[in-house]
Amino acid sequence: MKQVNFKGVNLPAIGIGTWHMGDNLKTYAQEKATILYGLNHGATVIDTAEMYGEGNAETLVGDVLQEFDRQKVFLISKFYPQNATKERMKQALNNSLKRLKTDYLDLYLLHWRGSVPLSETVAGVIDLQKEGKIRHWGVSNFDTADLEELYGLPQGDQVFANEDLYNLANRGIEYDLLPWQRSRQLPLIAYAPIDQGDSRGQKLTQNSVVQKIADVHQVTPMQILLAWTIQSEDVMAIPQTSSIEHMKQNIEAGEIILSDSEMQQIDLQFPGPDSKQPLQMI
């Protein structure tokens, strides 16, 4: 699978999202098998959060990690904004680590901004780093102004990644946020990289150009959408699926290289932003 370079760390361009997973006992075994399939086939980044099912997704991932070499997994979790103080962050992390059945995270993200000053949050994650409980720290759902504020703080520029909504139907961050991050070598993790909702009244997968390009590559339109998201060298996508077949397709999408002509054809159908857009979140 295509690799991305995250501040000197080589990672697969396609990881595994876990939102809405771990909540249903009837599908638990299938979800566990799907994540294991992904890990065994190169999708060795798992993204979860204490918010997902109020810990259920982390518990699922913890069970998965009992059957795979923990050291080969790049494990990401996130903490609530209300847990962004030093003391609450430490407790939140300990709770997450207990559910995940591990003693460290590779990346710990502030899930979105709240009322806790960023300076306190940065000081807290750096303390956790010094304790060896997290290897890296980062943020999620941050816009350009948020990152500018972060970089203005002592050690704020040590942020490892920003995780935002990004897909063909939601390209707003291309106007200013992505260029800002690229100028500082700050990688992007794209959540919801396959948008199945309507875009200007037409589903992305039903677009004739997307379908035509998919036919040329002998893949599904969904795989083209995912491949589009990771065409840059500094964007990782974390699609979520509970299906082994879809997991297989996600991983295969990590091998698809779209030509300049194909990217231009897609751009004509779904143009990028020509002005600043409000940061989209789901």
From TrEMBL:
Residues 13-267 form the NADP-dependent oxidoreductase domain. This is Aldo/keto reductase. It holds the Pfam family Aldo_ket_red. InterPro entries: AKR, NAD(P)_OxRdtase_dom_sf, NADP_OxRdtase_dom. It comes from Pediococcus inopinatus.
